[in-house]
Amino acid sequence: MKEKHPKFMNKSLLLAMLMSLLAIILSPLANANAQEDTPIKIGVLQHVEHEALNDAQQGFIDRMNEEYGDRIEWDIQNASGNMASLQSIAEKLARESDVLYAIATPAAQALAAVETEKPIFFSAVAAPLQAGLVDTMEEPGRNLTGTTNLGPIEDHVELLIKNFPDAKNIGILYNSSEVNAQHQVDLAVEAMEARDLTPVLGTITSTNDIQQILSSLIEEIDVLLMVTDNTVDSSIALVGDMAKAAGIPTVGSSDSVVKANGLMTISNSYIDYGVQTAEMAIRYLEEDLNVAEMPVEIGKDFVMIVNEEFAEAIGIDPATLVELD
């Protein structure tokens, strides 16, 4: 049997080494390409239908689509304020999604109750700590993080005083079972009492209570201070119309709600809240971060919003409404 010449053996060995080296170089590229083609299943749970929450959803979806395009498989659900539906929808989304997006406190609580491993990002949650969603704002300590929509309550009170200096009795309509609303009311009452204003509270448990409670409240107040309350916000058409009919200014709440049927507020855009939360989700996906260590973020650009049509309807020249210094 003829032995192979060493020259040919060296060539064969060199070729094998080159092939191995090429495989090592190309392997990460192949894995990266495969990863880029892997679908991302995102489940979205919105508590109820109203302008602010719709805007947060749109901002999140647009930014995620901009980043990942057709890779995302969306499952978008709205519980329409039904707590029983909220829980069953949360269970389904948790089973079938890779990443979860909760819009409003009840949606975040429902997802947190059924999913402790997959990442849950939230928007429109005014009091994440008080709602039991995070251990601290700086380090959530669990699989939830996102953006808080807690508005500058003290600034809202100052805005009210600056534009309506003669107002003394300030009404707040809210659902006392919404922890996010209760937290804001506590802050507002403290701010008002420190400024010798009298808070007049009207508590509701559902949208069915609004007309009766607000009718009584309007008789006692000079201005209606609005907090971000999902029950009230989902009925802003009624709330705003009743305030207009009585000539009562409304101050506070979200930009979306004021644009729909309120007078004025200082607010971050809820579309921007959605975009900001999407940016957090993108960082998680791209940098392999630990959600439990991602701080809850606040809004970045609070500005005064005035609804000129509402102002004119209650006899106010919009040009006379002024910002805080």
From TrEMBL:
Highest taxon, organism lineage: Bacteria
InterPro entries linked: ABC_transpt-TYRBP-like (IPR007487), Peripla_BP_I (IPR028082)
Cited CDD domains: PBP1_ABC_unchar_transporter (cd06325)
Transmembrane segment boundaries: none
Keyword Signal: yes
Signal peptide: 1-32
Keywords: Signal
Matches recorded under PANTHER family: ABC TRANSPORTER, SUBSTRATE-BINDING LIPOPROTEIN (PTHR35271:SF1), ABC TRANSPORTER, SUBSTRATE-BINDING LIPOPROTEIN-RELATED (PTHR35271)
Name of this protein: ABC transporter substrate-binding protein
Species classification: Bacteria, Bacillati, Bacillota, Bacilli, Lactobacillales
